[in-house]
Amino acid sequence: MALLQTEGLTAHYGDFQALFGVDIILNEAEVVAIIGANGAGKTTLMRSIAGILRNAPDMVRFDGASIGARPADEIMAQGVAMVPEGRKLFPSLSVEENLLIGTYGRKTKGHWSLETVYQLFPILRERRNNPGTALSGGQQQMVAIGRALMSNPRVLLCDEISLGLAPVVIKDIYKALPVIKAAGASLILVEQDIGQAMAMADRVYCLMEGRVTLSGSPESLSREAIHNAYFGAMA
Amino acid sequence: MAYIVQTRTRASSVAAVIGAVVLILLICLPFFASRSLILDMFTILTMLVLAQFWNLLAGYGGLVSVGQQAFVGMGAYTLFGVVILGGIDPVAAILFSGIGALIIAVPTAFFAFRLHGAYFAIGTWVIAEVVRLLVAQWKTLGGGTGTSLPREATSDMMFVGWIESLLDVRSAAARDVLAYWLALALAVATIGVIYWLLRTRRGLALAAVRDNIEAAKSVGVDAVRMKWVVFLTSAFGTGLTGGLIYMQKARISPDAAFSLNDWTAFVIFIVVIGGIGTIEGPILGVLIFFLLQSLLADFGSWYLMTLGVLAITIMLVAPRGLWGLLSERTGLHFFPVQRRLVATKPTEK
Amino acid sequence: MIWVDTIIQGILLGGLYGLFAAGLSLVFGIMRLVNLAHGDLIVMGAYLILVLVTLLGLSPFIAVLLAMPLMFALGWGLQKFVLNRTLGDDILPPLLVTFGLSIVLQNALLEGFSADSRRLPTDALTTASVQVGPIALGVMPLLTFASAIVVIIALNQLFYRTSLGRAFRATSDDPVTASLMGINPTHIFSVATGIAMIIVTIAALYLGLRSNFDPSIGPARLIYAFEAVIIGGLGSLWGTLVGGIIIGVAQTVGAAINPEWQILAGHIAFLVVLLIRPRGLFPRSHD
Asked: Cα separations (Å) of C241 from B104, B140, C149, C155, C178?
């Protein structure tokens, strides 16, 4: 049985339909990458899984349970944590407080604690008392990831963690992912930039205009197939 | 295919005809109605005008004021001032009421616009309190206990003599009829002005500022100017009404003229229950208000509690008010302001 | 000498106004909601304490301890079932609903208790005064001011040293991301209003001990509270106390010049600050 899966997931913003029946599967200890152009529906997919958008109950299943209609705070308590697009740190909280608030809804003991997060991202220890938003983009991304880890989630949703960061910084951030995977979390990586995502992933899904246009392991997909799935065959 | 912008609807054309008939009836009312009915109608009409101006400010302008009583009071005191100190005829003095209100509206807006949202609301309230406290210091007009219009002024008002002979009534009754007709004229003029305003580009700009001030600015709407125009217009209209109301009462005191309950609470309830942001809403609201008042008038605080609970419930359950509910279900608009793009066939060669 | 005495009385009065304002400031800081019924809730708190004192024969200081959990529950319920439904982008619903609530409360109290002026029973302690040099300071005003300081310190501790306080600040910043942390914003808002009602109860105690109250005085308390919050600057609790002090001093100085000018002087002080520092004296850096 898959750890997390979506079945025929549809999502709307008012009258506008963003997802048209998306099926994805995440197995235990897997890294799944979801790629696609801007507006393809990747973030909508993440928000649906995380509970920010509510859907029909059976459209999203975690560990067998139907969570599609549950709100975000309940889903988080079950062990699905999200690193949101744009980092979304809390300006009124310091770096350390931002990390601590990650445990508000779920206090499960595990590998991740303040101490081990600081070991993963040592620069944060130096900046622990700074306001959350007074850091560089890359450091903020580290805080956002650390914050999500603090609840020792079983599934970590990473929404565009490379957005707006310099290549050198992106490399640094991605170095942390294997450590996170080794500590027991299964990952879904959403990226516009496919290079890093494909290198890490066990399997890839490509979204275009709210539909899955391609899926498989990175090695099995040709460049041309990816190009067509990403942009559409006409492009 | 050519397109025109149209606001007229079938319902509104029918309503216009019915409205004209109703208006003629209302004008003729003093010929066959009792004095108490005339007085009730006077109250209904003046409350309607106050409601329309509050609605313009809050429903269309997005400026929720809890301080309009400042303008009612100021308008009323200006009337008493020019009559008592200047010897001007009370009917003519009504115009001065509007100007008096306008004069304090300028500094009021200056201070209040520094605040936003709920803080703007309370700010207008504070300023109304300041005006009340200052006016209560003015001993010539009665200070804290108030004063009355002198008999020479009221017995000799413009038009009263003519009405006395026209309807064969005594002076006091003629004064009430005069007040009623003035109120009717004011109500018609107010609805006319507001409807016209909303149908012009200014009205469109106003709605844009209310919905999203940044977006409105980005298409060139001068949001600050719009806020001033709406605020001053409301103040002027409210002041005129205050003058008229107190001309009829002929007796004034600061607590009455600047009463929050009478001139703001009731007005807000009327607009909210009837339907905020539409011209029809306050009309429906004032009728319901009056119905409730006649049913519950003997029950003082229960009456107010009922109004309050009704307003709360409507705001939570049907924020567009009773007219909004009705209009959503039936698509009825008697004063349509929504612009629709209508395709027309190009004329044949 | 009389001026020093006047100003000190004003400062102590400012403590009471600071208490009035603290609850208002708390709720606005977390959920951007201004409760126009705030003053009437204070008056209701005073009546609740009065009822407990009369029915159970307790001293007001004990009765207030009983009243606090009751008021917490009331605030919690009010937020959960009524006020939460008004939150959103539109400013009209919270304003109009709380305005309606204010009118309902005033009239309900009128029906229940009549318009007679009441006062909480005072005893030797509460009317005593302490000599400090040439000035006599009332024990009540001192206690009120001290309570205001304790309340603000307690609130700051709550906000900056506890997990709940972190949740308050996070929800105030970004309710959607806060829900990703397992925070239920509607639950947090209800707790916040409940806490605000506890502060309101403390304010009600001192209001009732200090002077007469009746159902109609709520709106004036709201205005003083609001003026203190604006002068202090949105988001600063200590600023709110400073704002209260400024209003208090303006009122006592105004009254010393001419008793009829007391309230007007307070409003004028508010307008002056609004003129020169529209954002208040200690505004939050981001809002």
From this structure: 31, 40, 8, 13, 29
The answer to whether the Cβ–Cβ distance between A93 and C177 falls below 8 Å is no
Alpha-carbon distance of B227 to B210, in angstroms, equals: 10
- Mean pLDDT of all residues in C163-180: 94
Residue B3 lies in a domain: no
pLDDT at residue C287 above 60? Answer: no
- Chain C nearest C-alpha distance from A214 (Å): 29
CATH number of B166's domain: 1.10.3470
pLDDT at residue A188 is higher than 90: yes
Quote the CA–CA distance of A87 and B138 in Å, as a whole number: 61
So what's the pLDDT on residue B295?
85
Residues B77 and B94 sit within 8 Å (Cβ to Cβ): no
Per-residue pLDDT band for C1 (boundaries 50, 70, 90) equals low
> Would residue C192 count as lying in a domain?
yes
* pLDDT tens for each residue of B285-294: 999 988 888 8
Q: Do C184 and A81 touch (CB under 8 A)?
A: no
The pLDDT value recorded for residue C82 is 94
- Residue B197's pLDDT band, with cuts at 50, 70 and 90, is confident
Q: What is the pLDDT of residue B349?
A: 46
Task: Mutate one of C81, C103, C287 to test the B interface: name it (highest B CB count within 10 A).
Answer: C103
Establish if B315 belongs to a structural domain: no
Tell me the average pLDDT across C272-285.
84
Q: Could you say which of C172, C180, C183 has the minimum Cβ distance to residue A92?
A: C172
Containing domain of residue C100, as a range? 2-115+137-217
ipTM of the complex: 0.91
**Whether the predicted pLDDT of C192 surpasses 90:** yes
Q: Which residue, chain included where needed, has tokens 């977390």?
A: C30
Of residues A84, A88, A104, nearest to C167 (C-beta): A104
Domain that holds residue B251: 25-275
* A contact residues 171-200, partner C, Cβ 8 Å cutoff: none
Let me know if residue C224 belongs to a domain: no
Does residue C235 fall inside a structural domain? no
In percent, the amount of chain C with pLDDT more than 90 equals 73
**Does residue B338 fall inside a structural domain?**
no
B338, pLDDT greater than 70: no
pLDDT > 90: percent of chain A: 71
Residue C254 lies in a domain: no
**CB–CB of C177 and A88 under 8 A?**
yes
In this complex, do C182 and A71 lie within 8 Å of one another by their Cβ atoms? no
Name every residue in C having a CB less than 8 A away from some CB of B: 33-34, 36, 82, 85-86, 90-97, 99-104, 106-108, 110-111, 219, 222-223, 226-227, 230, 260, 263-264, 267-268, 270-271, 274-275, 278
Lowest mean pLDDT among B212-216, B322-326, B331-335, B344-348: B344-348
Domain count, chain B: 1
In a domain, B62, yes or no: yes
**Is B239 within 8 Å of B186 (Cβ atoms)?**
no
pLDDT of residue B138: 85
Looking at the structure of chain C, the number of domains it has is 1
Q: For A73, which of C169, C174, C182 is closest by C-beta distance? A: C182
Compute the average pLDDT of residues B254-275: 91
CB contact under 8 A, A93 and C173: yes
Contacts of A2 (CB under 8 A, 6+ apart): A25, A26, A27, A61
Residues of A in contact with C169 (CB under 8 A): 90, 92-93
